[in-house]
Amino acid sequence: MSKEFKLFFSTNCTSGYENSVHEVCHDMNVVPFVYSGINLSVQGSSLDKEIRDDLYTAKVAVLLIVARSSTGEQVEVEDNWALEEKDSIVKSKIHLLVYASQEVSQTDIDKLNLPVDVIRVENETAFKNLSRKRFHH
After folding, report:
1. For residues 56 and 6, is the Cβ–Cβ distance under 8 A?
2. Rounded distance between C-alpha atoms, residue 48 and residue 42, angstroms
3. Which CATH entry fits the domain spanning 6-134: 3.40.50.410, 1.10.230.10, 3.40.50.10140, 3.40.50.300?
4. Lowest mean pLDDT: which of 47-51, 70-74, 109-113?
């Protein structure tokens, strides 16, 4: 029995990119774990354990950093559950991809002290096109 290829996707608000993740994963025969609206408030909860279990069974972890939700609401860039796991993700040999939408400032990205380069995306279409090239297994 072949091992399923799993991809973990997280963002701290409903970004509008979730459908693209599902579409790309479906096209590539990848099992997606998609978590939207997951911020630091879930730490220590039963949801925290579920998210952690899904994350650490994935081969690829995709973090989307946004400053505005799909409805235009301002969100805190650093209030993202998965950002707290960034170093552990890399140490666990999970391929980490970090995307940032265009409204996120370079200053905000620099403050996050990320262990990988950030991939800038202008919109959901650009995200989908880049993802098709990068969600490989």
Report:
1. no
2. 6
3. 3.40.50.10140
4. 70-74
